[in-house]
């Protein structure tokens, strides 16, 4: 799940969930679950988008953007998301960290 476009022009304040992980390439069942999680999170009111990248060495970073704490909480409490998190700890991830932040200032640039 690597994105090809940046999330830009969001009006602060909003919230970010920065998920950094270390996992082997293409563990069984991961890609399908990841695609399903992308579809589920898009249905949460207040979800604004995400950016994701992975290095060849297995380090991945996904930044998800949410309008408010309530939308972020709805994602955290989603039963299918919680099930995927358990599977990640049991099977897919060697390590991960999660950082939640409130964005108070934001700007972007795009070459024409």
UniProtKB/TrEMBL annotation:
Highest taxon above the source species: Bacteria
Domain ABM: 14-100
Recorded coiled-coil stretches: none
Pfam families per record: ABM
InterPro entries tied to this protein: ABM_dom, Dimeric_a/b-barrel, Jasmonate_Hydroxylase-like
Gene3D superfamilies, per database record: 3.30.70.100
Residues that span the membrane, as ranges: none
PANTHER family tied to this protein: ABM DOMAIN-CONTAINING PROTEIN, BLL5343 PROTEIN
Name of the protein described by the UniProt record: ABM domain-containing protein
Underlying gene: yqjZ
């Amino acid at each position: 799940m690597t994105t090809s476009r940046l999330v830009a022009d969001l009006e602060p304040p909003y919230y970010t969930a920065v998920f950094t992980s270390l996992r082997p390439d293409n563990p069984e069942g991961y890609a399908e679950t990841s695609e399903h999680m992308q579809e589920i999170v898009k249905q949460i009111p207040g979800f604004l988008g995400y950016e994701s990248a992975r290095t060849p060495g297995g380090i991945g970073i996904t930044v998800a953007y949410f309008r408010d704490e309530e939308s972020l909480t709805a994602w955290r409490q989603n039963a299918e998301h919680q099930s995927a998190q358990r599977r990640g700890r049991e099977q897919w991830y060697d390590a991960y960290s999660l950082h939640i932040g409130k964005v108070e200032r934001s700007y972007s640039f795009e070459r024409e």
